[in-house]
Every structure is written in structure tokens, then in C-alpha cells.
Amino acid sequence: MSRVNRGLRFFPAARPPFLSCSPTVPRYDLHCHSTHSDGLLAPAAVVARAAERGVNVLALTDHDEVSGLPEAQAAAADARIELVCGTELSVTWDDVTLHIVALKIDPEHPVLASALDEIRLGRTTRARRIGESLAAAGVTGAYEGAMKYVTSERLVSRTHFARYLVEAGYARETKDVFKRYLTRGTPGYVSHTWASLSDAVDWIHAAGGQAVLAHPGRYKIDGPHMRRLLGAFRDLGGDAIEVVSSSHTPAQYIEFATYARAFGLRASCGSDWHGPGESWMDLGDAPAMPQGAIPVWNDW
Question: For 92-146, how does the pLDDT look when each residue is reduced to its tens digit (9 = 90+)?
């Protein structure tokens, strides 16, 4: 069955009114990254930039990592903004790689900490295989090149490979590297099985957090598969989906707000910011959220 997302037909043609995703007080950005995963700025610098841009509530959600949270918490206290402890877990569902953002977690909870350790070990193994695959295709030194961009020795990601391949002249932008070298059917693609969706939700809940399906519009799955995914996520105890994301178009804000209401899920918003120049949406730039979606922070 094709996994191409062809959109859905049951959404209303007219656009409903909007509620601010970033109200005057507070203003939220619940998805961003630092150098402790694949971001370009240290946690304190991410917090400072968010504060300068008017964010009142910020979630640092490094990939499979929580080591940047103490620095971010100290910086948030100085900047007088609220920091939400988070992370972004890599998950395999139905042969599709998904990301689940965890919000309001206890980063020291032993169940979650142990799980993240295992996921990071898997990332290291995958990175070596990516380097080998690229070398076989004539792109030599990619693993060593990627490691030059790793500022936290605990985690290496495809983004680090992308930055090196841009530096080495294989592409002009990191997004081009993903298309040509790091996704399914390209020379550097390596299949990898991550945590199960069920386990990820359980780990997040064990740590007292909320599980949010990140940027659902990014996944190459069609309408029926999306509805099956959201039904499974809800039934496993998933809490929310990202409605407003830098990965979504304005039409998709409507689409996923409708999905959130239909499946009884809360709605989240975030820039998914990694660093200056790497995304059109900066910290605090998340636009308005469609009216009727219940924010994930509603009961905070």
C-alpha cells in the first residue's frame, strides 16, 4: 500500500478562527534542540535566544538525551522563563520511524534514563553503518567528518553527517543531503529498529511526562495509515500531537487540529529549532493554533 500522504477529504473548506499558539502570557515553544543532540547552540544559549524572542515557556527536547537540561534550567531561572524538561524519542511503528516528544518529565527517572541509554547505543551503531554505507558509495571519511560536529559525545545523528557532507561539497544545504544520501533508497540510508511506540509512551509516563507525536505531517504515510497510527497512539495512552510545527503547512495546522479533536488528543506547538539558518521558523515563531484544539499545557 502506498504511504504517500495524499491528504484527507473530510476537512472543511473554510478555515476556522485561530487561537494564539503563543498567547501574550505565556508564550510557548515546546520543541527545540541544543548541542547535546543535533542543535547548533549550547542549552544556555538556546534559552537566552528564546527569552530574547519573547518565549515564556520553553521545552528543550534533545533527541534521546536529557544531559542538557541542568544547564538549560539554570539559564531559564536567570532569564525568568519557565523551562519544561523534555526529550524526543526515536520510535519504530509499522516500519516507519517516528519521533515522540516527551514533556514535563523527570529526567532522572531510572526507567527513562535506562531506555535513553539503550537508544543512544543504537544511534552509535547506526552511525558507523552509515559511514560504511557512504564509503561503499564513494563518500569517504563521512563517519569521522560527522564526529567533528558532535559536541556531546553521548549522541551522533544523521544531522551531523548532513553538516559534514555540506562542508565536503556533496550538497549545498543539509536538507539536500537528506534527500540525496540519508533517506530510504539513497546511498547512506541504513535501516534501524528503534523503540516500540508502546514502550516509548510507557517510559514517558513512568517519568511523569506527557507523550506527544512530533510533526506528524513529516511522515510519509497516507490518510488511512495516519488514522491507524493516531488510533494506536491514543489507545496506548498517547497524550497529544504537534499541530503547529515548522514541518507543517498552514493547511496541515487545520488537518492535525481536526485529527486531535477526532481522536481526543491535546495539541502542541513548537519550532523544532536546531540553530540559526537551519529552519525557516525560529524560536517563538510558532504561528496561531486552530480554535477548538485543546493545548497540551491546558492542565499545567
Answer: 999 999 999 999 999 999 999 999 999 998 888 999 999 999 999 999 999 999 9
Residue 169 lies in a domain: no
DSSP summary character for residue 234: H
Count of Cβ atoms closer than 10 Å to residue 101 Cβ: 27
pLDDT value for 154: 75
How many domains does the structure of the chain reveal?
A: 1
H or E segment at 49?
A: helix 43-52
DSSP lists the bridge partners of residue 88 as 63, 101
Tell me the pTM: 0.82
All cell numbers assigned to 15: 478555515
Gap between the Cα atoms of 44 and 146, Å rounded: 24
Residue 210 and residue 240 in contact, taking contact as beta carbons nearer than 8 Å: yes
Confidence of residue 175 (pLDDT cuts 50, 70, 90): confident
Instruction: Kindly give the pairing relationship between strand 82-93 and strand 195-196.
Output: parallel
Residue 237 lies in a domain: yes
Burial 117-137 (b: 16+ CB within 10 A, else e): eebbeebeebbeebbebbeee
User: What is the per-residue burial (b if ≥16 Cβ within 10 Å, else e) of 78-93?
Assistant: ebebebbbbbbbbbbb
211 falls within a domain: yes
Residue 136 counted as domain residue:
no
| CATH, residue 111 | 3.20.20.140
Average pLDDT over residues 205-222: 96
What residues contact 246, with CB distance under 8 A and at least 6 apart? 215, 271, 272, 273, 279, 280, 281, 286
